[in-house]
């Protein structure tokens, strides 16, 4: 059995709870806390789970939306069971395809 960590990013839901439905509406809120991101950067921040996050960005998002980092990021521990795979060592029998037969096309006599 293996264990892995999964994170969920809830920024879009938190924005909706505050009546913010356009990603561009977050830009001026972040700028109030000294975080200047382009429109494209904010779009990716809202619509995709970030692989790396800057603490100043997370702090500005939390301050602007009145939430905590634990509201924004949910951490789950996922345990995966190993699946046993049975290998069958039986003969292929009828599963084997019929061998292909290649025939030469009939030869036509040369034209005079």
Describe this structure in words.
- The chain has 112 residues and is α+β, with helices and mostly antiparallel strands.
- 33% of the residues lie in helices and 14% in strands.
- It has 5 helices and 2 strands.
- It has helices at residues 11-17, 26-31, 39-47, 55-65, 69-72, and strands at 2-9, 73-80.
- It starts with a strand and ends in a 32-residue tail after the last strand.
- The mean pLDDT is 89.
Helix content: 25-40%
Number of strands: 2
Shape: elongated
Structural class computed from helices and strand pairing: alpha+beta
Percent range for β-strand residues: 5-15%
Helix count, DSSP H or I runs of 4 or more residues: 5
Distance between the first and last residues' Cα: 79 Å
> Main β-sheet, in a few words?
2 strands, antiparallel
**SSE string:** EHHHHHE
The overall average pLDDT, rounded, is: 89
Return Rg in Å. 30 Å
Give start-end ranges of low-pLDDT stretches.
Answer: none
Strand order of the largest sheet: 1-2
Domain HTH cro/C1-type: 10-74
Region (Disordered): 89-112
Pfam families: HTH_26 (PF13443)
Protein name: HTH cro/C1-type domain-containing protein
Brief write-up:
33% of the residues lie in helices and 14% in strands. The chain is an alpha+beta fold and 112 residues long.
């Amino acid at each position: 059995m293996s264990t892995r960590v999964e994170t969920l990013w809830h920024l879009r839901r938190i924005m909706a709870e505050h009546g913010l439905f356009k990603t561009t509406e977050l830009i001026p809120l972040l700028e109030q806390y000294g975080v200047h991101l382009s429109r494209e950067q904010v779009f990716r921040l809202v619509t995709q789970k970030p692989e790396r996050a800057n603490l100043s960005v997370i702090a500005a998002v939390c301050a602007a939306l009145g939430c905590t980092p634990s509201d924004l990021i949910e951490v789950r521990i996922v345990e995966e069971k190993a699946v046993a795979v049975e290998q069958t060592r039986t003969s292929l029998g009828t599963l084997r395809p019929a061998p292909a037969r290649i025939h030469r096309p009939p030869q036509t006599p040369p034209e005079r």
